[in-house]
Amino acid sequence: MKSSLVFVYGTLKRGGSNHRFLSGQQFVAAARTVPGYTLCQPADYPGLIEEAGDTEGVVGEVWSVSPICLAKLDQLEGTHMGLYRRIPIALADPHAELNVETYLYLRSVSGVPRIGSNWTEPGPA
Ligand code: PCA
């Protein structure tokens, strides 16, 4: 079956609290999106949003995942309830040729802290 490339920037990254959802999948590269996107922090996870005027993009990892894994990721990210939507996103060089998708945060971000280009998961308290 056909695999998909997913750009992860939050809890799915290596060492992250949801990284186990990528077990058995293939790491492709550390990468950055093109400018025009940033991260906000609505809860104990980040959300990628469009940000006009952003110059840095968002830092993350590209993974090659199976269709079954992708379906589980969609469920985890609440695509069925409008929390995130999986969208194609452009990466900066040297990964600009990769056709990847990522999870765009859909809820209102008014008053939600902006955290810039790189999210690091807080360790256990
Ligand atoms: N999980 C997804 C989206 C945000 C999150 O915490 C990810 O790691 O890309």
Q: Helical element count?
A: 1
Listing every helix as H and every strand as E from the N terminus to the C terminus, the arrangement reads EEEEEHEEE
Beta-strand fraction estimate: 25-35%
User: What is the overall pLDDT average?
Assistant: 96
CATH architecture classification: Roll
State the distance separating the first and last CA atoms: 41 Å
Please describe the biggest sheet, giving its number of strands, its sense, and whether it closes into a barrel.
5 strands, mixed
Kindly state the number of beta strands: 8
Outline:
globular
How many domains comprise the coordinates?
Answer: 1
Q: Flag low-confidence runs.
A: none
CATH superfamily: Gamma-glutamyl cyclotransferase-like
Structural class assignment: mainly beta
Bound molecules: pyroglutamic acid
C-alpha-based Rg, rounded: 14 Å
Main β-sheet, spatial strand arrangement: 2-5-1-7-6
Q: Give the CATH level 1 class.
A: Alpha Beta
- What is the percent of helical residues? under 10%
- CATH fold-level name: Hypothetical upf0131 protein ytfp
Structure explained in plain terms:
With 125 residues, this protein is mainly β. Helices cover 8% and strands 34% of the residues. It is built from one helix and eight strands. It has one helix at 67-76; strands at residues 4-8, 26-32, 37-40, 47-50, 59-65, 84-89, 100-105, 114-116. The protein has a five-stranded mixed β-sheet. A three-stranded antiparallel β-sheet has the order 4-3-8, with no helix packed on it. The model has no long low-confidence stretch (mean pLDDT 96). Residues 8-13, 18, 45-46, 77, 103 line the site of pyroglutamic acid.
